[in-house]
Amino acid sequence: MGVIVWLASELMFFGALFAAYFWTRSITNEAAAPGQPTMWDTNSAHLDVTFAAINTAILVLSSVTCQLAANAAEAGRVTNFSLNPLKWGMREGFIITAFLGSVFVAGQVWEYFTLFNEGFVISTNQYWSLFFLATGFHGLHVLGGVVAFWFVLARSYMTRTHTHEQTVGAHVVSYYWHFVDVIWILLFGVLYFLR
Known about the structure:
195 residues, mainly alpha, Four Helix Bundle (Hemerythrin (Met), subunit A)
């Protein structure tokens, strides 16, 4: 229950970021001269939508492997290496999920360095401030999720038997991961596609 309340507070945090984004966008669009491109039009053209879409697909795939791991924990399958992902144990699923989450974060870092090389930083203008704040905070949440996966994995390796507490831990981490995934899908749609 505590995790659900905490995720609700996180939802309010990201809701505030979305509100700031839409409010700032409406103000700057109203200030633009008629017929002239807005700040959003000129700056969003520098985003690599294809790269971000691939990175998004990686994060969505990690949500699938996370759920497979949570289901395996529920069934008491701690480990079961198989070429069939549906037969994986909790450990295999969480290791793959943590790896995919790390790849997603590395992709965000790569995108940041590409934008920095083009001269776009958090202080460039309101657009880039909101872009880097929203994606940066989300990236920190993904990194926190990766650490949580390694924590759950470490606990599973330190005990001889799989316990109910480990199953609950696996589910709690999966709730958090799915939340982070849904937030990114919303951010991706707003930042990369909304014109």
